Amino acid sequence: MSKQIEVTVDPIIRPFAETYRTETLSNLDRLEQLFENSDYVQIREIAHRLKGEGGTYGFDEVSKQGQLLQKMCDDGDFAAIPGVIQHLRHFLLNVRIC
């Protein structure tokens, strides 16, 4: 069993943070599908959104990994994309919003 990762967010946005977490998990499935289809333009667009949105909901790790994904697409470093997606999935499945 993985250790839970605690993220503290303002109580006002806590319900929105949970919704964002759930929606982002769904986006990871889409990212995997896009990777299988070599659609790096769409991957970059989702990565850009992750980079911008993650911190809004207290998920700085999502922003950091979104920035990394975006850079990989810009640099043509596509082979490492699945690892970043798995890292994001692990984070989102194990995060506890406080």
From TrEMBL:
Top-level taxon of the source organism: Bacteria
PROSITE patterns: HPT
Sites bearing Phosphohistidine, chain numbering: H48
InterPro entries: HPT_dom_sf, Sig_transdc_His_kin_Hpt_dom
Example GO biological process: phosphorelay signal transduction system
Domain HPt: from-to ranges: 9-98
UniProt xrefs under Gene3D superfamilies: HPT domain
Keywords of this entry: Phosphoprotein
GO molecular function, one term: protein kinase activity
Protein name: HPt domain-containing protein
Source species: Salinispira pacifica
